[in-house]
């Protein structure tokens, strides 16, 4: 662990073209549970698995149950950025980090001060009426009941990518551009199991691919450096 951390520190010190690609593990250290983990936090009090509830089909067929889950489990508005979020914002401010590409929808990167954040799966902080496109923030959504309705009568839909929905092409294109031009690509807090987002790693053409994760991933063999452990703890020492 110590040797890997020293190598990572050297890589960071010697570059000014880092791109970070992160997943749920970046936010779990801020107290936001990962519904894919074995703790089962997201499965309590629900008759359906999270992957079913968070699908476009379920949203259309059972909107009341969808929004009950959304308010209960997705709107973690008291969560604060952790050491990993803060370090990435610091690197960006120093000109070392060019972009944060995230699968998370919690807005913690921006709260920590990051400016160039590409949200592959959208954000709970953006909610729009499906009829008139009026904007509503997360705080408003948290205090609604049943299916949230706009002043025009339309349903307010979270600007998050549900299962069965495609990623935003513009965001995806920008992510590919940043990754393909990066000198250093750091991937943290993700099992690299969710596609198409996980496939972005294939666009990296450099020789400093760093994986930081608590557990092994299917892509470890491709990495130039694997650092196993808490991403917040590792980043806070850099």
From TrEMBL:
Any one cellular-component term (Gene Ontology): cytoplasm
Catalysed conversion reaction: N(6)-acetyl-L-lysyl-[protein] + NAD(+) + H2O = 2''-O-acetyl-ADP-D-ribose + nicotinamide + L-lysyl-[protein]
Residues given in the record as NAD(+) binding sites: 24, 28, 35-36, 103, 105-106, 121, 190-191, 213, 231
Domain Deacetylase sirtuin-type: 1-238
Gene Ontology terms for molecular function: histone deacetylase activity, NAD-dependent; NAD+ binding; zinc ion binding
EC class: transferase
Source organism, top-level taxon: Bacteria
Localisation per UniProt entry: Cytoplasm
Active site, per annotation: 121
Co-factor note (free text): Binds 1 zinc ion per subunit.
Protein family per UniProt: Belongs to the sirtuin family. Class U subfamily.
Protein purpose: NAD-dependent protein deacetylase which modulates the activities of several enzymes which are inactive in their acetylated form.
Name recorded for this polypeptide: NAD-dependent protein deacetylase
Organism per entry: Eisenbergiella massiliensis
Name of the coding gene: cobB
